[in-house]
Amino acid sequence: MSGFSKKVLVALIAFAVLTMSASQVLAAKEVRFASVSWTGVTTKTELAVRILRSLGYEASNTMVSVPIAFKALDTGEADIFLGNWMPTQATMANKYFDKGTIEPLVASMPGAKYTLAVPTYAYEGGLQHFKDIAKYADKLGNKIYGIEEGNDGNQIIQSMIDKDMFGLGDFQLIPSSEAGMLSQVQSFTKDERWIVFLGWAPHHMNEMIDMKYLDGSTSETFGKNDGTATVYTIVRDGFVEENKNVAKFLKNLIFPISMMNQIMTTLHEKDGLKPVDAGLDWVKAHPEVYKGWLEGVTTISGEPALPAFEQYLETVN
Fold this sequence. Notes:
Pfam families: OpuAC (PF04069). This is Substrate-binding region of ABC-type glycine betaine transport system. By secondary structure, this protein is of the alpha/beta class. It has helices at 3-29, 39-54, 66-75, 90-99, 120-124, 137-140, 152-162, 178-190, 205-208, 239-242, 244-252, 257-269, 275-284, 287-293, 305-314, and strands at 30-35, 58-63, 80-86, 102-119, 143-145, 172-174, 197-201, 211-213, 228-236. It folds into two domains: 3-110 and 230-314, D-Maltodextrin-Binding Protein, domain 2, CATH 3.40.190.10; 113-228, Glycine betaine-binding periplasmic protein, domain 2 (D-Maltodextrin-Binding Protein, domain 2, 3-Layer(aba) Sandwich), CATH 3.40.190.100. Strands 1, 2, 3, 4, 7, 8 and 9 form a seven-stranded mixed beta sheet that branches. A two-stranded parallel sheet has the order 5-6. The termini are far apart.
């Protein structure tokens, strides 16, 4: 090989290495969240996106249904999902965990609640347990109200009906949006009509509706502990190894139940306020929380994360 040819070959190799390095840097800068249209998950995800953007990352959020969120992580089309409610999503999640394409990263919100609920007047009237629902079929119109189609909670309710668990074989699941379901519940409570619906905490429904959660959940339904749940942050396989700084941030990103209840109540009281704005207002008032989130985290260029995020907060009205 001539000297000229060797120089050309060396130049081509150097160019290829530089191109690969550049593409790796770009890939490392991109952080893709999948979320669902639940107020809490939206708020948490948009907060995480804003924080990462302040650190120099190209963070994005795509809103989909729960099954699609899992599928997006499975296929590598998304990196992170902050709404893995366990054990209620176990049937949906475990197949991906077992497959190895998705991994749980951290319990980001322990002590949550996710199960069937009723207005307090219905509870005091005798509807206190899953086995009581069928007793009051006439009062309930043989209906149980859920949220969006394909949601894991809806799937559990439908399975209970299909298997005639607790004598619910003649009942019908009424799917709706989160807002639509809550509007229906509030409409019923005005006249003290009886209704069974999918409830959860944290959520402003616990403040705006005088409600009680039913006992009787099993491992086949919403979990053995009467619907007490833990929310996990989950990531696609390989994400932690490729993005150690972001993974450190995500492990720190723990959301107290009280924080989310307060944010959701503010959103309910202030019509038109966006979830991310309510979240940022709360974060600005609680620096001890965001300082914990950013402990040991850096910007994309390796500088301490805290000053960069606080500089961003100064620009937020």
